């Protein structure tokens, strides 16, 4: 895993992602110290279930998959594949808790890493942006929960 500290290029990339559309150019400077880029090789694990990292990520490029463990089973099950711009680790940000899944790069990938504490402080300083970002995350989690509900109903209906 290779990490590159915040730069104007990384900050400008944030503006391309739906999560950060409310961000104005003049607010980017406040985020410089909290962002960096992580480069992963194929097969490299970004995070594990139960891991504490103090950060979340945005998929910048590549192919990143999320897996979860099932009690009594050796292998992990694939939960989803993340598209460009998708946040990962956002539940730990919102809950101030451990990560709930294993995240693996299926091919060379890059992610933008954002430090949780600094990001939450940024949201306090810029409540307009903070509100829109948190609203985006709430919608995202609601969509993921809706998908999970449908999946569980499908599995249960087979019994």
Automatic annotation (TrEMBL):
Listed Pfam families: cNMP_binding
Matching InterPro entries: cNMP-bd_dom, cNMP-bd_dom_sf, RmlC-like_jellyroll
Residue intervals of the Cyclic nucleotide-binding domain: 19-119
Domain of life, per lineage: Bacteria
SMART domains per UniProt: cNMP
Coiled-coil ranges (or none): none
Protein name: Cyclic nucleotide-binding domain-containing protein
Source organism of the structure: Fibrobacter intestinalis
